[in-house]
Amino acid sequence: MTWCLSEAIKSIDQRFIGESTAVSLFRDERNGRLAIRFRAVTADLRTRCGTLGQQRDFGTGARNITLASHEVMKRACSRFAGAPDEQNISSTPFVKKKLLRHLENTAVAITVDSANDELLSAEMMRSPVLSGLQMKVTPNLRFVVRDKPHASRRLTSRPWGADEVLNEIIVMFCRGRGSVARLVQNSVEVRRVFVGFVKTTKGAVKTVAANMRAAGHRFESMQKPLGRSCFHIHACIKTALHIMRARTDDSSKRAKAWLSWINSEKCLLAAMMADASDQSLQFTRILDNEQMDPAILASEVHSYVASITTLFGDQAKCLTVFGYTSVMLETLRTPVIWQIGNVTHSVGLSGGVPDATIQRCLDRMRSWVLLATAIVASEFPSFEVAQAFSVFDLQSGPDANADIHLERIAIVSSLEANALKAQWQDIFPRARMIAAQRKDAPQDANKDAWRTAPSRINSHRITAKCHPTDVLRAALRQYLAFGVSTSGVEQAFSKGAWSFTNRRLRSHATTEEFCLKASLDLPHHDKQAVVGLARRVWAACYGAPRTATRPRIDKGVKRSRDIGEDGQVASEFSFLRKRRKAATEASRNAPRSDLGAAAVMMPANQPLSWGEKHTR
After folding, report:
1. Among 26, 165, 238, 342, which is disulfide-ready with 197 (CB 3.0 to 4.6 Å)?
2. Cα-based distances in Å from 546 to 91, 537, 539, 550, 558
3. Is 599 a residue whose pLDDT tops 60?
4. Where does a domain end: 481, 500, 526?
5. Calpha distance 616→606 (Å, rounded)
6. How does pLDDT run across 320-336, given as a tens digit for each residue?
């Protein structure tokens, strides 16, 4: 039945893809699985997103990724493929070749991460020589988009890695084994002690953080332990003192080293880095959405650069506006003193942090701002098509470089530039007025307004003749299909692991694919329509269910599946069950043994393998 639901959803997607004029693909791989999602746009600017398919154990390298992508596209355009008991179904599986060619020709964009094999595969898909198929898999592929959330993560990792002092702060506060965040994260007892100190220590946050979340699987996730260490700095110091005095293992030495290393300047610099990383994380979260509107990408990039420049530039707003830095400056007005051997250590001064210390920290953060700005310019260049779509941003008003952006869109979309400019200037005020009236869905306000404005104009033949929109609609189809993030695929991996993959490790690849298709896409469809189509699929493949008037004669009798037609055992489970049954039958009539003391005496016929160790 799950397969029938999957086939029903697939048929709905196939109908929509067949009507589409532009399709964007989103591809990623994890644990030997290549997953692809799609976004299709029709001539009347309707859109649909969904799971195209998954290929398992496809190999490595760009060529194998290309071949696997084409196999996924073929199965997405097929009917009745991968059915349970496929040999006995009434309908023969087949590929809709016309639909497959249509999908190949309408695929205009593919979004991947920055892995070399992924990027090379995207180029191979539009080359008959490189693809390995002697054909262009996607002959009209115009845009190869690098995943923007991955690019935004490099705004912190690269500049911090280039500065030894900043890198040391990250290691000692978050990533290193000797950081208090890691010590709290990895020990239940230390966590209990830390929570107790947080409750008895006055801090900026009333709620107690019982978990530092110091998991090092991604660099941007270091913001949590860094930030929590900053506004619980006094509790961290008390916890380190407790570990140093109460523990006898290696954690005591690490806590002692941390207490010898920490000082006021490092605390303040860590707080500034926490503000910076939170600003970068906020930028990443905006981009990390499959539905992220490319029209607002340019404005979000400029907002990010403006925010870090304001916080750490000449204005140094981080010292006054609410945040980790201002809270740390206030916290450091209360000194904390401790003794390690004959050496006295302290954090904080009654008069606050000296201006010279503040300026040294700001100077180092300004170096980070310069590097981060340079990385923004390289990862989000102003000349890329993704930023050219800012002309469709209705929230910030007409772009000063609108003509340049429209020319760029016209070139890559093979449109007439002057006609596109004229139609955009004509429709933009109308679309902006429609967007201003939308209060319920600001995230999709731009896209909905650009769908509605041409539709209203074309609803009457006179207005349609006076206000042509044919070229603009062609550009809008590229805009609506364009995507900047593969987060939908990554989220599908996580949801699929929870709903299926981690619970069915031995399933066939086709079974896994149709189960994931059903579990991931069914919530986004009309369930009544899907169930109706699924019933038709069942009837076409397995026949109408029989009407039984009396119980089956073999009801309750287990069917033997241990031995196949060729005499082989069907599975490992059947093998073990057969072996255990045979061993039990062989020993059924054996005489009962007396397991008293005399039974363990050496038998008369001593085994030849018996040795001195057996005797002992």
Report:
1. 238
2. 18, 16, 11, 12, 21
3. no
4. 481
5. 15
6. 999 999 999 999 999 99
Is residue 575 assigned to a domain? no
- The amino acid sitting at 423 is Q
Give the type of residue at 184: V
Predicted confidence band at 603 (pLDDT cuts at 50, 70, 90)? low
Residue 578 lies in a domain: no
Length of the chain: 616
Contacts of 285 (CB under 8 A, 6+ apart): none
| Global confidence as pTM | 0.83
Rounded to an integer, what distance in angstroms lies between the CA atom of residue 66 and that of residue 71? 9
- Tell me, yes or no, whether 161 and 130 share the same domain: no
Residues 513 and 413 occupy one common structural domain = no
> pLDDT tens for residues 453-502?
999 998 888 888 999 999 999 999 999 999 999 999 999 998 888 888 77
Identify whether the C-beta of residue 320 lies closer than 8 Å to the C-beta of residue 327: no
If asked whether residues 296 and 409 sit together in one domain, one would say: no
Whether 248 has a pLDDT exceeding 90, the answer reads: no
Whether residue 158 is found in the same domain as residue 232: yes
In a domain, 183, yes or no: yes
CA atoms within 13 A on the CB side of 360: 14
Question: Cβ distance 441 to 291 under 8 Å?
Answer: no
DSSP 324-341: HHHHHHHHTTS-EEEEET
Looking at residue 206, its pLDDT comes to 74
**Contact by Cβ (8 Å): 179, 173:** yes
Nearest to 279 by CA among 238, 317, 232: 317
In this structure, the dihedral spanned by the alpha carbons of residues 73, 76, 82 and 84, taken in order and rounded to 10 degrees, is 160
With contact defined as beta carbons under 8 Å apart, do 319 and 325 qualify? yes
Pairing of strands 336-340, 143-146: unpaired
Q: What is the CA angle 293-299-300, rounded to 5?
A: 75
Q: Is residue 584 one of the residues assigned to a domain? A: no
State how far the alpha carbon of 137 is from the alpha carbons of 106, 115, 350, 469, in Å. Answer: 11, 20, 69, 31
For residue 41, what are the domain limits?
A: 1-147+485-542
Q: Contact, 123 vs 144, CB < 8 A?
A: yes
Last residue of a domain, which of 465, 481, 497? 481
Give the count of domains, the chain.
Answer: 3
Provide the token pair at 249.
């293992």
Torsion sign, CA atoms 132, 133, 138, 141: positive
Query: Can you read off the two tokens belonging to residue 19?
Result: 């009507």
Which of 388, 394, 383, 396 shows the shortest CA–CA distance to 475? Answer: 388
- Dump pLDDT digits (tens) for 169-221: 999 998 888 899 889 988 899 999 999 998 888 877 777 776 777 665 555 56
Claim to verify: residue 206 and residue 315 sit in the same structural domain: yes
Helix residue ranges, H only, 163-187 = 164-170, 180-185
